[in-house]
Amino acid sequence: MMDNSSTLHLALPAVHTAASATAPPSLAQPRAFSTSVNPLVFFSILDHYLRRNAGQDRVIGTLLGVRSEDGSEVEIKGCYPVPHLETEDQVEVDMEYHRTMFELHKQVNPKEVIVGWYATGAALNSYSALIHDFYQKEVSSFPAVHLTMDTALTNERLGVKTYISAPVGITSKADNCMFIPIPCDVKYFKAERAGLELLANAKSTESGSTTLLSDMDNLEQSVIEVQKMLERVSEYVDSVLAGTVPANNTVGRYLMDTVSVVPKVDAAEFEKMFNSHLQDLLMVIYLANMTRTQLAVAKRLEKLM
Amino acid sequence: MPSNKELSAALDIEGTVPIHSVQLDAMVVLKIVKHCRESIPATVTGQLMGLDVNGVLEVTHSFPMPKNNQDSEDDGSNYQVQMMRCLREVNVDDNSVGWYQSTNMGNFMNQSLIEHQFEFQQALSKSVLIIHDVARSSMGNINLRALRLTPAFMKLYKEKKFTTEALTKAKLTFSNIFEELPITIRNTALLTALLYELETADESVEVSTSHLTTYKSTASAPASKSVLAPSFDVLDLSLDPYVAKNLENLMDTIDDHHQEQGNYAYWQRSVERENKKKAAYLLNRKTENARRAQSGQAPLANEDVDAMFKVPAEPSRLDHLLISGQIDNYCKQINEFAGPTLGKLFAVGELQK
User: Fold this and answer.
1) Could you name the Gene Ontology cellular component terms for this entry (chain B) (predicted)?
2) For residue B328, what is the enclosing H or E element?
């Protein structure tokens, strides 16, 4: 019985690497091509989508970022919207606008380059191919990345997918291409992480708004989180001991490792360290408060004058 | 459909309703944090855009300004005009409502900032300055403050007279140069959906790369796979660098303060000297005149005394105000930092037992 399955041969775009200079030139080694995205990009895309003109179904824009030295890792750091018009038979992209915005952005971030484009709406149609071709020309030697964000919330998910395109078919026309999905990570600075957490607080409120937390409140929240985690863990351990839950060796070992991380310091040593640290801190607080009092007194005196 | 009256009340065309709070869009927060973070240790600025509605200043968009301040001012405004034009095409509110600046360890009170903010507030009465402290934000909590210059200060700055009497008359001290406004952060509905999605771990994880995209957190704790898994940066116990730097800055500012005091004292002494000389001269004149009157000569004309002994003008007290404000700021920072730190310290103590 002959196999009726058909295979499709896809040419992954060859990535020129410094390392592969040693490899025989006939073997274009396609490395694993992956992207990482800054969450700010998602937010900007959503914002752009919200502001679209009436009648526009999807919006597009340019992605900016940096790529790693061998071109296989792309980090998408920013984006800006580009006005475009899509009708039944043609699509128009405002290239002038795209160039101007890129120049402006370069003034602030000279390191960021165009790495691709984004579109809202999960559909990939021939217009996508055309636009992708245009962006491919902008990105020159490296494959352009196309990011889609499903704002229609199909499957109740904001599906984010990233693709690169590969030519397929007999003739190499612009819209004969296939979009190959590539993996996508979310990457951010530590400070942004704190910002994201703050925003996440807002999602449970009605109006979707939250106030800034003072440092104390933030600490309180974290401590409560840790407490909850500890409670969960101790519940689990209790139930395993009581025999109600089957013991999982990996989990048990992991817990043991975690608990042993707490440094075992001799009690007297610890007392000493603790006290000296405390003293330093209290002294600094005292001095700071004294300075403030001094200033306040000076302020009152000035008023009297 | 709101009636015209309601709409105009909301838009406040006359500009009579004072702003009492600032509402930032979530995207603006992230953009500011990202921009300031990327340009450590230089301080950077950017523009804020939005609209003020019913006394709440809503900031919906922001963009960073290029940092080449050495070039002429025109470059900055050219960039701004172009940027606003481009943003208008994609339906972003192109109404400028303020600017933001990054700062390191809270040292932002200087002349240039005040001047800039003054010009801004002159041009647009509804504007705000947002300060983002990068150093403090790396300790697990974002630090954003919304500031405006108080009207009393604006009046005084306009006249540029910062003598002691002017200050006491206006009851202006270093603590009411700026007024701080509360900030709220707003998420749109789609954003809320995004946040929920980022939080839930992707169920069908670890499938081959060609089929699904996976969300992974960079802090790859094996237990938590979601982006918003709790981060415990705030529970970090390394206190010394922050406190040490703060104290250094404090000492530098106190040195400046001392210098200012020295200047003021010098001025006072010179005024004293001039006054004494004037008094001596007048006395001299009087005795001279008396002697002449005795001997029957015409008295010497009373020359213009003031022109001869010019009393030096009082130096501007603006620097003094700013420096005091800065010192106050540093001390407050130390206090605010110390609170949670004491908590952490005692928590560790408990953990040991």
Assistant:
1) eukaryotic 43S preinitiation complex; eukaryotic 48S preinitiation complex; eukaryotic translation initiation factor 3 complex
2) helix B318-352
* CA neighbor of B34 nearest in space, from A77, A111, A229, A304: A77
Partner-chain contact A186 B216, CB within 8 Å: yes
**Token pair for B66:** 């290029």
Whether pTM > 0.80 for this model: the answer is no
Residue B52 CA to residue B18 CA, distance in Å, equals 10
pLDDT in tens, B114-139: 888 888 888 877 778 888 887 776 66
Q: Which amino acid is at B297?
A: Q
Calculate ∠ Cα A142-A143-A148, nearest 5°. Answer: 140
CA distance A219 to chain B (A): 6
CB of A230 within 8 Å of a chain B CB? The answer is no
- What part of B 107-146 touches A (C-beta under 8 Å)? 134, 136-142, 144
Q: Which of A94, A295, A297, A300 to mutate to test the interface with B (most CBs of B within 10 A)?
A: A295
Structure tokens at A180: 């190959």
| B244: amino acid identity, one letter | A
Residues of B in contact with A277 (CB under 8 A): 239, 345
Identify the weakest region by mean pLDDT among A139-143, B25-29, B245-249: A139-143
What Rg, from alpha-carbon coordinates, does chain A have? Answer: 28
Nearest CA in chain B to A99: B86
3-state SS assignment for residue B188: coil
pLDDT average, residue stretch B211-237? 42
- A18, with CB counted inside 10 A (0-12, 13-18, 19+), is exposed
What residue spans of B160-239 are helical by DSSP H? 164-170, 189-199
**pLDDT the model gives residue B269:** 87
Q: Which residues of B touch A55 (CB under 8 A)?
A: none
Q: State pLDDT tens for residues B282-314.
A: 888 888 888 888 887 776 666 666 666 677 777
As a whole number of angstroms, the distance between CA B214 and CA B207 comes to 9
Distance of CA B67 to the CA centre of its chain: 18
The answer to whether A268 faces chain B, any CB pair under 8 Å, is: no
User: What is the spatial distance between Cα A202 and Cα A253, in angstroms, rounded to a whole number?
Assistant: 37
Rounded Cα–Cα distance for residues B324 and B55 (Å): 31
Interchain contact B347–A (C-beta under 8 A) = yes
Q: Which pLDDT belongs to residue B29?
A: 82
Single-letter code of the amino acid located at B282: L
d(CA A33, CA A13): 10
Taking the C-alpha atoms of residue A203 and residue B191, their distance in angstroms, rounded to an integer, is 8
Q: How many CB pairs under 8 A join A and B?
A: 274
Average pLDDT value over all residues in chain B: 72
Please report, as a single letter, which amino acid is at residue B90: V
Exposure string for B226-258, b = 16+ CB within 10 A, e = fewer: bbbbbbebbbeeebeebbeebeebbeebeebbe
Residue B189 is predicted with a pLDDT of 66
| Beta-carbon separation of B27 and A47 below 8 A | yes
Query: Which token pair is B96?
Result: 């400028």
* Separation of alpha carbons B271 and A285, rounded Å: 39
* Averaged pLDDT of chain A: 73
